[in-house]
UniProtKB/TrEMBL annotation:
Biased composition (Acidic residues): 223-240
Chain residue ranges for the region called Disordered: 210-240
InterPro entries per record: JetB (IPR025449)
Record-linked Pfam families: DUF4194
Name this polypeptide is given: DUF4194 domain-containing protein
Superkingdom, taxonomy of origin: Bacteria
Amino acid sequence: MTEVAPPSGPFVDPTDIEDDVPALFAGDTGVLPYDARRALALVLQRRYLSAAGHPAEWKALLAHQNVLASRCHDMFVELVVDRDYEIAYKRQVREPGLNVPVLLKDEPYKRVETLLMLFVRNRFRQEQGAGERAAHVDAEELVDYALGFLPAGETNLAARRREIDNAIGALVREHVLDEVADGRYRVQPVVEVLLPVERLRALTTWLRGGGDAATDGSRGADDAADDVDDAVDEDEEVSA
């Protein structure tokens, strides 16, 4: 009598994520390993997860990308993984005709933060074009650039300086800038992702409308808008 071999295939083979995953807490029914769970939680918690900042979680995210993406889709959230820049971030699903509960609030950068991101993004592009491995900016460069957009007749310079310092601090917390020495920062590649063409276009509209009415010796809003237009043109050439 010929023995029939037991069936094999995806229906009987356990999936990788179900292989001996220990419970992490009382009543735990999760099937993802610890680092993959951390990766998912970090993506949901912050603007982005980077390989440089969280190497173990990044490795786990790549290993379980399809499952993590499915977990996000269950919440009408899209997981975006950029392997070139080695970052992952989330995006709210917005589908015409689909009534979707919105979990992710739009948290746009403040105007000063966006202006500084434009400055460091251009610096990053310039250094890349020159073949440099890294781009750096000094705090005073950022301050001088932002001060150029103050309205004519602005008298409360101390308050504006605090606003700019707070914006620099925000970019450091978001790891757009990493402080390598007192008042000197390395620009992280993530600025390319966090300041996409759509945001650049919105910034152009604001600047072409006069910004905050900066005039009389300050850096003109139209000049900065030209910088934005150049950045948009570069992005569109790359994507064409």
